[in-house]
Amino acid sequence: MRTDLPALIIIDMQKAMANPAAGERNNPQAGSRIADLLAAWRAVDAPVVHVRHMSRTPGSLFWPGQPGAEFQDALLPLAREHVVEKNVPDAFIHSGLERWLRVRGITRIVMAGVSTNNSVEGSARSAGNLGFDTTVVADACFAFACTDYAGQARSAADVHAMALANLDGEYATIGDSAGVLRALAGAT
């Protein structure tokens, strides 16, 4: 594994996230963008981390043993890739992820996955606060529509854009998959 390259961290790309019951989402191409990133990282033997949410709420689609808790077939981890299980949105909390990265001397990370305003944003905030050089790949993440605190319905695109704005420059750099793939190719 080439630890001189950034680690790709794929967050919560589980079968439940593809369930139409999850609601209106943006970036329908996000899954294929993540697959492109994953293929590129594998081709150069760069570090890959797959994060899986395992709910503590009985009946949740993410409850251990439920089909929704399993990784999406197109993004299944290889035996050499690290898998992190989490019980809260932030992939760094009680997971050993920070230690895994530090032991390997990895200081740069690229994040993709779902949902932009929840697990991706929470994880990217921690990564930035912990001193990792973090890039969030905007077109390889997606969010779901929701109602804000004031009762205003917000589209998935609005939720996604606001989460990225919350991160940009403060905790992470926001990029797109084409730029991230060019940077990876230039570093190898």
Brief summary of the model shown:
Residues 7-156 form the Isochorismatase-like domain. The chain is of the alpha/beta class. It has helices at residues 30-43, 97-103, 116-129, 156-167, 177-187; strands at 7-11, 48-53, 82-86, 108-114, 133-142, 146-147, 153-154, 173-175.
What does this protein look like?
Helix content is 31%, strand content 21%. With 188 residues, the chain is α/β, with parallel strands linked by helices. The chain has a single domain, classed as Isochorismatase-like (Rossmann fold). α3 links the parallel β4 (108-114) and β5 (133-142). α1 (30-43) runs parallel beside α5 (177-187) and α3 (116-129) packs parallel to α4 (156-167). The longest helix is centred in the first third of the chain and has 14 residues, at 30-43. The radius of gyration is 16 Å and the shape is globular. The mean pLDDT is 95.
